Amino acid sequence: MGKLKGKGVMVALDTSLERAVQVVDALKNAKGHFSLKVGRPLEMKHTIHVISLLKQKSDLPVVYDGKIADIPHISSIIAQLAFDAGADGVIVHGFCGSDTLSALKELGLGDVIVVADMSHPGSQDFYAKHFHEIVDRAVQLDVDGIVVPATKPERIQFVRDRFSGYILSPGVGVQGAKPGVPSNYGADWEIVGRAVYDAEDPKRAAEEHYRCVLGER
Ligand code: BMP
After folding, report:
1. CA 21 to CA 37: how far, in whole Å?
2. Does 143 fall in a domain?
3. Which of 21, 27, 63, 167 sits 20 to 30 Å CA-CA off 15?
4. What confidence tens digit (pLDDT) does each residue in 108-157 have?
């Protein structure tokens, strides 16, 4: 769990490669604690090697957000490819159950981060109903990180009270949650995408967000 320790802003790079590289360059000189999240859009356009490319450009930690959701054998292959490309952590759907989560832990190649609920309204249909069970399972399995939506801050507090790993919280900015709120409730990383990569000045946007994480704004 070393590289992803501490409170900060995790920038989701769901944009063009050109813009992603501009954002990464901007973050190198930005004041704050930052990490990167590479999701399926960038990976599908440029293959998993996009992670190696971004790792060459900066030493910021990178999480592969493949939202892995398969049987243990296939999930392990996907995670291994991401770790081989340089990812420090991978994100897996909690609903896959213990055997998939354990298989990724057993790889021992990097952090395993589990989604316990999601930020969009449709998450109420299914995901949200199993939140407590998923959190219990993730805690028992001693995973490294848990994703809890910023749009449901009381759930961040619930996880913080029983989990010593790090909490990542998406849904800040365009999705409506206020920067700094997840952090107040105990999140470590506030995940933000469009509010940074679509900003005229991504460095300034990221720095302002970081100040909110610190409670300075
Ligand atoms: P944005 O700040 O542009 O809304 O981006 C949010 C990022 O967080 C996206 O990469 C999305 O995949 C991710 N995310 C989310 O929005 N809600 C979740 O519940 C889980 C996520 O990983």
Report:
1. 13
2. yes
3. 167
4. 999 999 999 999 999 999 999 999 999 999 999 999 999 999 999 999 99
